[in-house]
Structures are given as structure tokens and as C-alpha cells.
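Write out this protein's structure.
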Amino acid sequence: MPEYLAVVQVMLKKSILDPQGRAVETTLRRLGHTNLSNLRVGKRIELTLEGERSAVEAQLAEIATKVLSNPVMEEVEYQLTELADPNLGDGG
């Protein structure tokens, strides 16, 4: 069965105040980094899934929206990349 690397990114919706992002931005400005704005902090989750692509895509969508994020407050994006088969060597 093919294996896939799933990368899930979760961010607060733009309409939700991001106190952690504001704190980081304030600290960076105090350090002299004044050319930045709208800093937001989120989370990135990586996992490996095995199976047929269509089933894995459906599973990832469910995991991302029902477990890894709160759809009321957060936006979620995810990517799925097929991993190389470790059993296939380069012949050398």
C-alpha cells in the first residue's frame, strides 16, 4: 500500500483575536523589527497515512476537521504527498 505524508496547518480565523501572535509581534517590534505586521501564530501537524489515495484523502479530511481543528474558531488546510517506496532501490 502506498504511504503518504500529510501536513495539516491550523490557523485562527482572521476574525478571531490571536493573542499569541500579537505578543510575538510586539516582542519583535521591541527588538527593532518594525517592518512587519499582522503576525499570526498557528500549528503544523505531520502524520503518515497508508492506503489508497482516495481513502486516505477522505480520512485526512475527517481527521483535520473533526480532531485537529475547531471549525468554529480555526481554518484548516492540508497537503498530501506520496512517499517514495523504501523497497525500491536505485540499483546500486
